[in-house]
Design a protein that fits this description.
36% strand; 8 strands; alpha+beta; 156 residues; 4 helices
Length: 156
């Protein structure tokens, strides 16, 4: 009886500790990061390669070519991403990271967006060109209960 109680308590504490854990993003290779600069869909390529794609939903197509310009993805770890490049001025992306820490999302931003022309604010919730209004990428990190939301717009 004592052995059964001990095993039950051990299982209970193990499952409780798993619930509080946060996920880690896989570190991409330097070669992948260098190639990503030339991909318009680098986010989808990163998550597919390092995490694994689960589902894809087409939200909108260009009217003249029928190519996809807005889509939604859900990846194996629960990460969800919406991208919209239907506007000629730029593209918008929103990525939801469930059970990831803000520091993991900051790493993601630094892997793919870090440059000499942009900077973080003091709280590392906004990363944007040093001169407000300049062309480039404007990123915002929001911390919500159980998830981090990264939204950004890149354009001119």
């Amino acid at each position: 009886m004592k052995k059964l109680t001990f095993i039950s308590l051990l299982l209970l504490f193990s499952s409780l500790s798993l619930l509080g854990q946060t996920n880690k993003l896989p570190v991409p290779t330097k070669a992948f990061i260098e190639k990503a600069k030339y991909f318009s869909d680098f986010e989808e390529k990163y998550f597919t390669k390092y995490i694994g794609k689960k589902t894809e939903k087409i939200l909108k197509r260009y009217t003249d070519s029928k190519d996809i310009c807005a889509s939604e993805y859900e990846f194996r770890t629960g990460i969800k991403m919406k991208s919209n490049s239907c506007s000629e001025a730029g593209s918008e992306v929103e990525i939801i990271f469930p059970n990831y820490s803000k520091s993991e999302v900051v790493k993601f931003v630094e892997w793919f967006f870090k440059n000499d022309f942009s900077e973080w604010n003091k709280t590392k919730t906004n990363y944007q060109p040093k001169e407000d209004g300049d062309a480039g990428c404007y990123l915002e990190i929001k911390e919500l209960k159980g998830k981090i939301v990264l939204s950004y717009y890149c354009g001119c």
